[in-house]
TrEMBL record:
This is Laminin EGF-like domain-containing protein. SUPFAM superfamilies: EGF/Laminin (SSF57196). Disulfide bonds join C85-C97, C105-C114. It holds the Pfam family EGF_laminin. One of its GO terms (biological process) is animal organ morphogenesis. Residues 138-163 are annotated as: Disordered. InterPro entries: Laminin/Netrin_ECM, LE_dom, LMN_ATRN_NET-like_EGF. It comes from the Eukaryota.
Length: 163
């Protein structure tokens, strides 16, 4: 019966005051302390939090904004529930991370923030593959489609063994 009472209340309120409602039943507005305002969307029959704070988003401010991930040691109502990803701008593909805080790295980059290089790569404003000493007259040549650079007369193990 309570659901019918709620629907009647919402219909009555929307008839006198058209537009999104900020005046709702207190039980409907659950934002885990990240907002104190809700809105009722009539055609969806949904109550949603408005202006989520503390880098949260979602119908109940229960998700982290893009560029942030959930602090597993914090409760959902903690203002520090979302932690900034801090992905390395040069080593990562973008500023977003997964739910554990790991960033998506470019080729050769590694680490939670993509600020380190895989073996056989070196850092110079990004990770670059190490090649054999080019002072010996060995020049890189383009690789096959989809492959990386190759060296004339030197196997890939010689390149991977380069310092």
């Amino acid at each position: 019966m309570k659901d019918e009472d709620d629907k009647w209340y919402r219909r009555l309120f929307s008839a006198c005051c058209p537009g999104p409602s900020s005046l709702l039943l207190p039980a409907d507005c659950e934002c885990y302390g990240h907002s104190n305002r809700c809105s009722y969307i009539d055609f969806l029959n949904v109550v949603t939090c408005v202006s989520c704070k503390h880098n949260t988003r979602g119908q109940h401010c229960q998700h982290c904004r893009l560029g942030f991930y959930r602090n597993s040691s914090a409760e959902l109502d903690d203002e520090n529930v979302c932690i900034e990803c801090n992905c390395n701008q040069i080593g990562s593909l973008h500023d977003r991370c997964n739910e554990t805080g790991y960033c998506e790295c470019k080729e050769g980059a590694t680490g939670p923030k993509c600020d380190d290089c895989l073996p056989n790569y070196y850092w110079r404003q990004g990770c670059f593959r190490k090649y054999p000493d080019s002072t010996a007259g060995i020049q890189p040549e383009p690789g096959a489609a989809g492959g990386g650079p190759r060296h004339r007369g030197i196997s890939s193990t010689a390149c991977s063994a380069a310092p």
